[in-house]
Amino acid sequence: MTHATRACDRCGADISHLHRNARRCKTCPKVLRLGLVPERACDICGTTYTPKRRDSLCCSRACNGLRYNRLYAARQKDAEPERTCPGCDTTFKAWRADQKYCTPECGNRHRARRAIQYADLSERPCQRCGTVFTPKQSTSVYCSRRCSRRVTYARYRSQRIAAAAAWVRANPERRAAIAAQHKAARRAWEQLNPDSVGFASKDWRKLVRRYRHRCAYCGGTDGGIHMDHVIPLSRGGRHAIGNVLPACQHCNLSKGAKLLAEWKRDEALWSPDVKQPPETPLPLSA
User: Fold this and answer.
1) Biggest alpha carbon distance in the chain?
2) What is the Cα–Cα distance from 202 to 119, expressed in whole angstroms?
3) Residue 189 and residue 88: Cα distance in Å, rounded?
4) pTM score, two decimals?
């Protein structure tokens, strides 16, 4: 076929009158319709889909990208020579030029062993309480979880108090229900514990006067005077004048349901700045 006589490559019509670069007549569409393409399974995920192209192999762009990544990794693996894993001494074919280990898990284990081997685990003082301890990690700066939590609490104390106060304001009914539940449990302990005979208010006022309206443990008055059971009611203590002492808010709340020996031990570990009892004990007489 010469330039003078040209035919459409779709329908065979004469297109000699058109531009010399033309390949089809104006009546033929530029893009042929795909027609009916049967459903097929995706090569990556196996999902059955209807392709939009006859040469389509994947159901989505994500699967197609994963297919190309796998082909690239296979070509890289064939091109890379075999190497030895420093973690398990296994010979493997790397699929990446900078790959050192046979698997990510093997690399994590090897790096952890090296970190322990070269870590500085010498004794050091705790940054909070000053206790000399042997750390388990080179980055440890606190001797125990208590010190770490105490520092964290001191850092965010104002935010936590504000969040608790906001919750109380937003949930007055739940707060009242919790308080009623605690009050009922306390009354049940007072009634069920043996030798819980109770005492008159004048006996309590007399006991407070004996300690000069101060805390029996530290001698302070911060937060007012609370009634503290030496042996807690939840631990079988009796509700009687011989089992109560006046205590400040800090001592009463920090003691909680602990015995005196447990409380003093935990306070010594928990906080080095606990209020110490006065050097000269207060007289017990009025």
Assistant:
1) 132
2) 64
3) 62
4) 0.43
